[in-house]
Design brief:
The complex is a heterodimer of chains A (about 550) and B (about 475). Chain A is an alpha/beta fold. Chain A has a domain of about 50 residues. Helix content of chain A is about 60%, strand content about 10%. In chain A, helix 6 links the parallel strand 1 and strand 2. In chain A, helix 14 packs antiparallel against helix 15. The relative contact order of chain B is 0.10. The chains are: A alpha/beta (about 550), B mainly beta (about 475). At the A-B interface, helix 2 and helix 17 of A face helix 1, strand 3 and strand 9 of B.
Chain lengths: ~550, ~475
Amino acid sequence: MKFVYSRRGLKGKDMFFQRVFEVLPGLTSWFLVLGIIAVSFWKPIISSILVIAFLLGWLLRLFYLTIILMLSYCRLSLEKNTDWLARIRGLDRLDVYRKELSRLGGGKDWANKLSLWAHKKDLERLKKSGNMPPRSGDIYHLVVIPVIKESPEVVRSNIAGIASNTVLAKQILITVALESRAQESMKEAIRQIAAEWQQHFMDLLVVEHPDGLPGEARVKGANTSYAARIAAAYYEKKHIPFKNIIVSCFDADTVVSPQYFSCLTYSFMISPDRQRASFQPIPVYYNNIWEVPGFARVVEIGSSFFQLVETTDPEKLVTFSSHSMSFQALVEVGYWPVDMISDDSGIFWKSYLYFDGEYRVIPLPTTLSMDVVDAGAWWRTVVSLYKQKRRWAWGVENFPLVMRGFMKSKKISLYNKLRLGFKLFEGHITWAALPFLLTLVGWLPLISSGNEFSSTVLYYSSSRLTQIIFSLSSLALLSTVVLSIWLLPKKKKKFSLLWNLIHFLEWLLVPAILVFLSAMPALDAQTRLMFNRRMEFWVSEKRRLL
Amino acid sequence: MLILRKILFYIFASVYLVLCPLIILYALGYIFTPKVEEGFAKTGLIHLETLPEGASISIANKHSAEKTPATIRNLLAGKYEIRISLRGYRPWIQKVVVEPGKAVAFDKVLLIRERLQKKTLIQESFANLFPVSGTRFLLLMKSKKIKDFFVFDWKSEASRPLLSEGSPLEDAELSRFYMSKQSPFVLLQVKWNNAVKFLGCQLDKEKPEIKDISRLFLKGEPSEIRWEGGAPDYLFAAYGDHLYRFDLEKMIVFPNFLKKIQGFGLYKGKVYALRSFSIVRLNFNAKTSQETVVEKGSFLENLFHESGHYKIDFLSRNTICFLGKNGALLANVLPYRFIEEGLKGYQEDAAGKKIVFWQDEKLGILDFSRSERRREIFEPGPEIDWALNDGTMIEQAYFVYDASHVLFRDQDEVMMLALRRGDRSLQKIVKLFRNSSMFYSDDTGRLFYLEPNTGYLTSTEILPEGFSFSGVLSEFEKETKEVLK
């Protein structure tokens, strides 16, 4: 479907609906937060019943997500030792490979057995589809790294991470997308890094994005799209078909593992609908995790876990942060949105609408690591984190565009429109309102005390049930803490027992973090969207001991 | 993974759909019981909190495993007798009616020891004690001679003579003394060498300072004197319908500070005076009578129609009481006139929101904080809760344990009355020395009085040791601190 995925130049009905859907999320979040307080004053009995129903739902959801998180962790662990390169090579000679595999049982290790079982299933599906992939030697990677004021050393470690994929490195074209408004010293440093690393790859281009091109806003998407267009010309010159190229857009602080590109290539090859798909690794924030203040660590572990949970539901998965996709698809849809801050999720929705719903995100069973926000002083880190979360929450700008797209699309089924529209809407509302509601509901009986309601059985029962539910929820928190111990990278230096205890106690900050560094920035973003106060892209402050 | 996720989702959704209505019904009080025909019954509950905690509970002669504080749930509608017992304390027994879906709460049950633990503080006989309202001092009197007066600090339990040794005022005899709320400054009117003297005493000094300020009182004995703060700069004295200001530092008199007044009160450095058609305000340190009218209207004349002087007392910024000479009690909240005559005195709670007042035989409570909006034609105001009607000669009362009880003196006996709806239990506490006063403070939880046989200053525990309920810092305490600054 031809749909302009932008709010620029809208008129009449389009503008009206755009504004309606821009106002809706913020209005709903505020209505929920203030509504529950208002109902507590006016109809405390109804409010108490709602609170019980809400808390019970939240508790079950928490347990459900904790189980999903565990399962997702297991899935990740399952593929930890997988030799992706061997699988890629196997795909190049599919029939023989399948026969070879049928003789293998996976040994005694249950993880190997399960991994092999899943692999065989994938091969079977591919064979059935008849949509065979190009040979692995014909598959190329384009990596776009947008840079504006990130430290050159951070970019260097990003490139070094990509170079560690030694076998495939010569099929990788790196394009460092440099903003022309970046400092000259920065540009020079990037050019030096490029010269230093160029021979490791197929090529390494440094593309300078001119400021203020027509139709563009000062956002990351404009920079990456410009660089991708230059890369397209490069590939055309070399007669490399776009359908054989996987494009990855990496934030400057991304560090990938030596297996990353083999895993990505495998996922691309094994997916029959590879030209209609994005590939989403699990972004984790581990690069400087032990160097940042405790609250920042807890915030980003939470973000990593959220992504881990999200990847278990490919039907509703949306691209986030560093991601990959078919270059052919990227060119067809007209590259990343050039006037949106949330270009990462925007590109998925843009593609979904362009291909009339025939587009999906395939989760990659691998992680890539990024930096936790760290601005030096703890209070500056708080401000920085707040701004970063607000920028993420600004992803709500996709909602009005997606809804308008759904209204116009005749090919996307109503079920899918409702399912995805609700998920997008509910996700943002939950983000902004849930922590406030959880904080408030504990106080609601106090608000109601002193009036007639305080002499009812419900008054006493609701306080007791609230206590029980909150106590049970700590079980979920405990399992998250245990999981974080398994998942986090080893500490670079040895901490004393006291510091280890403090690291454990950091988790007690969760309630405050949920309100101040999650819900509040989300509500802020939604309120800005409500009042049509647009945001500009703001680069989070990050530091790393290299 | 996706299938597993879906299975889990449907399991959790089903659990929610089953559990949610059941839990809500339980929260509303519904239980399944074979005791009723329908199987399901809507129950009530009883919530009990005692001081001290950990008391045993029996309901309808059935011992409960729970100790206070406790909520006894799932009680079918009906009458129940609750008995709370704790070793060494008097049992607390109450009959209640439990209604379906309703909770009966006894959240401030104060258990009194079977044998009160008395402590003799001064082993000397006194004739009377006088609490200096809102301060930590008591004045102890052996005889009317000033040399027989002692200052007792009930926080540190230390005492000292009011007069320093060798003072020429030793033979002076007290005729009257004046105190002002929240001030450790007291004014004594004494007879000395056949002359009337006025002595200002600062009780909060290490050695009480006494200053002769008689020359300010050229016009004689005023009908009322008031001041504000710990070490006041000014005293305000009413002579007929004129208000005089005495400057204690410069020792000068401002004779007609305000004229034609019906009464006055002090609040945060300002004098408020009642006139027949208005209430005016003037700063303490005003050089001329540049008064500000804060209320005006003929309704004031109808309201304050009794002849004579009114004492104006600020309970808080918003609540003002007016005490008429004949014992009328008025306030600035509807219905304005509360008691027409016969009021003997009143005491406010720590938050300045409630007063307990007394007539000879009656004890009443006025709660100014209650402003429940009801669907009525007339705007409602606080109503008097007559807590006791069969006293003999009530002369003092104090709120106890966050105003959940009242401790009062009826003739020479101290009694305690619970103020809960449905629980007006009355308990005898101690007997007092003949015609002597008592003092109680929630800060210490102790009652101070003179032993009936010996006149020794004694204290006894009302709230358990280690527990003191200072509650919310009273408005007045805060304001006084501000004034003192």
